Amino acid sequence: MKSENRDRFIPYLKIVSALCVAALVMSLFALLYGFYERKVYRREYREYVEKYSAEYGVSEYTVYAVMKTESNFSKDAVSKSGAVGLMQLMPETYLWLVERSGDKAGDIYDPEENIKYGVYLLSILYNRYGDDEIVFAAYNAGMGNVDKWLDEEEYEIKFDETKNYVNKVKTAQEKYKKLYCR
Question: Among the options 44, 70, 113, 153, which is catalytic?
């Protein structure tokens, strides 16, 4: 009789074993995928991001998202339009920000300098527009273009490049929030 009872439970044991193996495999996959995502959405230059995010009141997630989208953390990046560094600042914008802050111009390629003024620019844009989408559009297309778009009856981003940029930054921002929410 004992053998019959045991034989009745063997199919259930096989199912439970298969479910345990599947759960283990899925957990391992989730762990590896999370590791992979943290490598893709990394947080380089943390000391500068933390410092200037706090100083200028801009979310670290936003700074990382802009930096990832702009240069993918390449401090020597130069765009076809002439924007440079981690935060892809235009040299004339950088000089305007330095003058506005009362500082002396340094090396725009220096990671701390570039992050400081990129975050400062984001803070100016947040104070002016207050909305992520509009801030990101202005960071990419300039305040002049965004002001024109806002003056129209219905706000619409006119440049495909800027539409794509805004979507990329918003996606990266959400990834950073998801991966590093404290």
Answer: 70
Shared domain check, 93 and 36: no
Name which of 133, 134, 136, 117 is nearest 56 in CA terms.
117
User: For the segment 108-136, what is each residue's pLDDT rounded down to a tens digit?
Assistant: 999 999 999 999 999 999 999 999 999 99
The yes-or-no answer on residue 70 being catalytic is yes
Question: Are 84 and 148 members of one domain?
Answer: yes
Tell me the pLDDT tens digit for each residue of 45-85: 999 999 999 999 999 999 999 999 999 999 999 999 999 99
Whether 53 and 180 have beta carbons less than 8 Å apart is answered as no
pTM of the model as a whole: 0.82
State whether 98 and 140 are in the same domain. yes
